[in-house]
Amino acid sequence: MKLAVIGTGYVGLVSGVCFTLNGNHVICVDKDEEKINKLNRMESPIYEPGIEALIEVNLREGRLSFSSDLTDSVRRSDIIILAVGTPSLPNGEADLQYIEGAAAEVGRAMDGYKIIMTKSTVPVGTNEKIRKMIASQTTYPFDIVSAPEFLREGSAISDTLHPDRIVIGLDNPDLEPVMRKLHQGFTENVFVTDIRSAEMIKYASNAFLATKISFINEIANICEKVGADVTEVAQGMGMDRRIGSSFLQAGIGYGGSCFPKDTNALIQIAGNVDYEFKLLESVVEVNKGQRFMIISKLHESLGSLRGAVIGIWGLAFKPNTDDVREAPAREIVEALVAEGAIVKLFDPIAADNFRKQYDHPQLRWCSLPEEAAKDSDAVCLLTDWSLFRDIDLHKLAQSMRKQILIDGRNLYTKQQIEGTGLEYHSVGRPQMGGLSGYSQSVAGAV
Ligand SMILES: NC(=O)c1ccc[n+]([C@@H]2O[C@H](COP(=O)([O-])OP(=O)(O)OC[C@H]3O[C@@H](n4cnc5c(N)ncnc54)[C@H](O)[C@@H]3O)[C@@H](O)[C@H]2O)c1
Ligand SMILES: O=c1ccn([C@@H]2O[C@H](COP(=O)(O)OP(=O)(O)O[C@H]3O[C@H](CO)[C@@H](O)[C@H](O)[C@H]3O)[C@@H](O)[C@H]2O)c(=O)[nH]1
After folding, report:
1. Which residue from 42, 287, 320, 381 has the fewest beta carbons nearer than 10 Å?
2. SS3 95
3. Ligand 2 midpoint to CA 142 (Å)
4. Positions at the binding site
5. Ligand 1 atom closest to Cα of 12?
6. What region does 332 belong to: left with phi over 0, alpha with psi -120 to 50, or beta?
7. Ligand 1 contacts CB of residue 98 (under 6 A)
8. Residue 222 — very low, low, confident or very high, per pLDDT cuts 50/70/90?
9. Whether residues 80 and 171 fall in one domain
10. 218 in ligand 1 pocket by Cβ < 6 Å?
11. Which of 286, 306, 337 is the C-terminal boundary of a domain?
12. With a threshold of 0.90, does the pTM exceed it?
């Protein structure tokens, strides 16, 4: 089949490239010409493991092309996939200007029957708006399909090629075999439903995963006070198949371009029909507070942070991506700056993106984790990049001014910490390498 993917970001680029792998011809379209020029030079504008090799081979073999000419791309394609951004408006609602703009452009470009498939995350009822928008621009027939995307950044290619399920919302049953064929080889697990339910499945799934994270973070906060270990608790809970072990990793909370935006959008979607989604409001609230646990732990150990030197490990919202949208690191670093600390930052991939969004004279940019730790009063690990796991913690402790390590992602084991001389704080686990929190209060009581 011939496809045009409108929007060549984290979703459009990965889906476009992956759709070439099961026999389709794909044009990835973006209005950002710099992005398209880069891609035509076989350079990826985003960091996503494995993407550049796939771009290169498919471009060379003629199954993939990149263009900033939407009209021409639409005319050469049978299926048009909308993958533009749907960011948050200040009130939390999804900003539909890009998707509506793209839909109108597609409508104007049409020169015959097309299937328009929405991959962007859009509030319930948006595909109906898209249908009207396109109909107002063309007299050619077309069908609308909602195909929400569930890939995760950092593992986007394997998530696309081996998804748990593909959700397809449609109102013309003739499209079902076409959609199954389009996704052939990815999974047999294609769930076909109506358009509004498909739109809701996306928000409900993200909201549910965000709920699991805020739930385990609250359990972690309680564990810390009662002397239990949240990693053990999560493991024990996850063995119950009804609960499942995924998304129970306690830490500084969720970030990224999806969970924060989609939870807020769902609260607004509910609010628009006079329903207060109290559970989800609490999930968001808990998540907002969780990141500042890093600052509280620093205060516990260092008192005032004025003049303190703090090393930061990890700026991306999760490992294996350069994406810093809604990364918890942003608010943590801002808070440290506001309290008068000197902040030494390291991230293996996302530092440039972070720096484009936020820079300050109190920030020192480091090219190695050891450099960020050297002569620091504390190091805070904010992103669980695997390279941090292999750092020599004995040497690290010796290079620091004060030996405090705050692990916001529970990356290290007891064995790794023992004997290093580090005062180690994690999230919801008993103190290791020093006395404080629960262990201190128990010690005081004995
Ligand atoms: N990032 C993720 O992991 C992820 C996963 C699943 C779903 N989603 C959803 O997918 C959508 C896209 O997200 P993203 O992270 O890929 O966004 P992104 O910001 O990385 O990319 C969007 C791209 O669309 C382009 N664009 C906007 N209007 C255009 C137009 N009229 N013509 C051509 N190009 C246009 C922009 O230039 C940009 O390159 C969002 O709705 C998001 O919620 C994202
Ligand atoms: O147990 C966990 C799992 C994740 N996180 C955090 O949650 C955020 C999101 O992580 P993840 O879901 O892995 O990454 P995303 O790329 O944001 O993917 C989510 O958002 C996408 C956009 O909608 C969806 O397509 C995916 O299915 C959904 O997992 C990150 O900050 C993680 O650090 C935790 O704190 N604990």
Report:
1. 42
2. coil
3. 34
4. 30, 35, 86, 121, 150-153, 202, 247-251, 255, 261, 318, 325
5. 16
6. alpha
7. yes
8. very high
9. yes
10. no
11. 286
12. yes
Q: Is residue 197 part of a domain?
A: no
Contact 248, 237 (CB under 8 A): yes
Distance 259 CA to ligand 2 centre (A): 7
Give a yes or no: residue 64 inside a domain: yes
pLDDT digits (tens, 9 = 90+) for 262-290: 999 999 999 999 999 999 999 999 999 99
In short, whether 149's Cβ falls inside 6 Å of ligand 2 is yes
Reduce the DSSP state of residue 298 to 3 states and report it.
helix
Whether pLDDT at 318 is above 50:
yes
Ligand 2 neighbour 250 (Cβ under 6 A): no
DSSP characters over 328-369:
HHHHHHHHHHHTT-EEEEE-TTTHHHHHHH---TTEEE-SSH
CA 33 to ligand 1 centroid distance, Å: 15
Give the domain-ending residue among 162, 190, 218.
190
Whole-angstrom distance, CA of residue 38 vs CA of residue 47:
13
Q: Where in the sequence is the domain holding 257, given as residue range(s)?
A: 202-286
Task: State pLDDT tens for residues 135-185.
Answer: 999 999 999 999 999 999 999 999 999 999 999 999 999 999 999 999 999
Asked if residue 301 and residue 269 are part of one domain, the reply reads no
- Active centre residues (catalytic): 258
Residue 196 within a domain: no
pLDDT band at 433 (very low <50, low <70, confident <90, very high): low
Q: For residues 234 and 125, state if they share a domain.
A: no
427 lines ligand 2 (CB under 6 A): no
The token pair at 197 is 């339910």
Q: Which of 162, 206, 254 to mutate to test the pocket of ligand 2 (most atoms within 8 A of CB)?
A: 254
Kindly report the length of the chain: 446
| Domain identity same for 210 and 182 | no
pLDDT digits (tens, 9 = 90+) for 331-347: 999 999 999 999 999 99
- Statement to judge: residues 84 and 32 lie in one domain: yes
pLDDT at 92: 92
pLDDT in tens, 339-370: 999 999 999 999 999 999 999 999 999 999 99
Let me know whether 37 and 136 are in one domain.
Answer: yes
